[in-house]
């Protein structure tokens, strides 16, 4: 598309268009509703897009479609995945354990971490040894 005039830039989440930049239109920028997508208008244009307030609902497949102007209307599409991660809001909790054990005792307990994406990786330590 080198040397060709820009007709439009479109952004999609899944199959839903949420952003369009068409330099020959007035206004050139149009934003459409899409779940989990909030565009920062002042930081977006024909060459970059900035999203605000990301949440788990923002995760998904995003595509950028760039089209050249007439006569070719040559179009290219690039797609990528966006994964929004959420760290646990609280420390893990341990349940079902006693405060003391004897040599040879079997230790059974449950360590739980809530509300994280991807799920937290939990590791047990005894006296600072894994």
Automatic annotation (TrEMBL):
Residues 1-79, 88-130 form the Ig-like domain. GO terms for biological process: motor neuron axon guidance. This is Ig-like domain-containing protein. It comes from Anopheles epiroticus.
């Amino acid at each position: 598309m080198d040397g060709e005039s820009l007709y439009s830039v479109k952004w999609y989440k899944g199959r839903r268009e949420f952003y369009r930049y068409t330099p020959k239109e007035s206004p050139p920028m149009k934003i459409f509703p899409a779940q989990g997508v909030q565009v920062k208008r002042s930081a977006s244009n024909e060459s970059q897009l900035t999203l605000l307030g990301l949440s788990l609902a923002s995760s998904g497949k995003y595509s950028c479609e760039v089209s050249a102007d007439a006569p070719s209307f040559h179009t290219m599409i690039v797609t990528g995945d966006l994964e929004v991660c959420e760290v646990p809001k609280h420390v893990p909790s341990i349940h079902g354990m006693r405060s003391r054990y004897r040599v040879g005792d079997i230790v059974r307990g449950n360590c739980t971490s809530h509300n994280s994406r991807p799920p937290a990786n939990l590791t047990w330590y005894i006296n600072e040894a894994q």
